[in-house]
Amino acid sequence: MGNQEQTSTIDTPHLDSFRAVVESRRSVRRFTDTPIPDDVLRECLRLAMLAPNSSNLQPWEFFVIDSPNIRAKAVDNCMRQNAAKTAARLIAIVARTDNWHEHAKQVLREYPLSPVPKKVKDYYGRLIPLEFVRGPVNVLSLAKWGVTQTHRQLKGPIKSPYYTLEDIKQWATNNTALAAENLILALRAHGFDSCAMGGFDEPAMKDLLSLGEHQHIVMMLAAGERADKGIYHPQFRFAQEQFVHYV
Ligand SMILES: Cc1cc2nc3c(=O)[nH]c(=O)nc-3n(C[C@H](O)[C@H](O)[C@H](O)COP(=O)(O)O)c2cc1C
Fold first, then answer.
1. Which of 124, 132, 159, 235 is least crowded, fewest Cβ atoms below 10 Å from its Cβ?
2. 163-209, pLDDT tens digit by residue?
3. Rounded to whole angstroms, how far apart are CA atoms 204 and 210?
4. What is the pLDDT of residues 77-133, one digit of tens each?
5. pTM for the model
6. Ligand 1 near 220 CB (within 6 A)
């Protein structure tokens, strides 16, 4: 198809609404006092968790910081950014590196077909553990690396497994960031706005929320109703040609 203009003949019943949601989303740094109702937030979180995710292992968590004491300290940890100060809801969006095994078992327990197909059982029971397991101090990773390299040279392409905790952190972060974007768009579709924040003190925030070494805060999300002057700058992006490569 390349970059030639094509006229789509596909039926696109949601296109206008989708465009309206995406194009009206902005990072909002000041919110009104209007609360986000619990049922709206719940629905937005449900939509967030419909995001595509690797092997359906769902390595994400959402900490909705409602307690006033924790909230005050969380705002400090967000460097007292206006978005955090004025948000109706402040949410820590967290990637987990330790629950892939438990979730693989849970997929089999909650699988929507009965009996669970053998292929699915093998995938979650054998392949997933092989892909993720590292052993103490990554002792098994060297063997995994050797097997993978040999396969690549002798038999052809093979997906690299995860060798280090850093690899798994990257994997969990990828998945969680997709859920974060769904959440941001779901809020917008409900008439609310948000500001993703990377400008926060992660160790301090983890302490505050009692998070462990296997929980990584991918971003903080401030959410609420857009206030007048809540948007600081006009939106712009660089030209598509700078980023898109047809190969
Ligand atoms: C991962 C991430 C971290 C961000 N961190 C902050 C932040 O700490 N403070 C802030 O005001 N905006 C933050 N932003 C918002 C960006 O500045 C904003 O998305 C960008 O300027 C484009 O503007 P737009 O979202 O209105 O299109 C962040 C956005 C992302 C995706």
1. 159
2. 999 999 999 999 999 999 999 999 999 999 999 999 999 999 999 99
3. 10
4. 999 999 999 999 999 999 999 999 999 999 999 999 999 999 999 999 999 999 999
5. 0.95
6. no
CB within 8 A of 147, min separation 6: which ones?
A: none
Identity at 58, one-letter amino acid code: Q
Residue nearest atom 10 of ligand 1, based on CA coordinates: 197
Ligand 1 atom 20: the closest Cα is on which residue? 27
| pLDDT above 80 for 8 | no
Residue ranges and CATH numbers for the domains of the chain are: 29-97+171-228 (3.40.109.10), 101-165 (no CATH)
**From the CB of 219, is ligand 1 less than 6 Å away?**
yes
Residue nearest to atom 31 of ligand 1 (CA): 196
* Structural tokens at position 128: 């997933």
Q: Whose CA is nearest to atom 23 of ligand 1?
A: 27
Within 25-96, residue ranges assigned H as helices are: 38-48, 68-77, 82-86
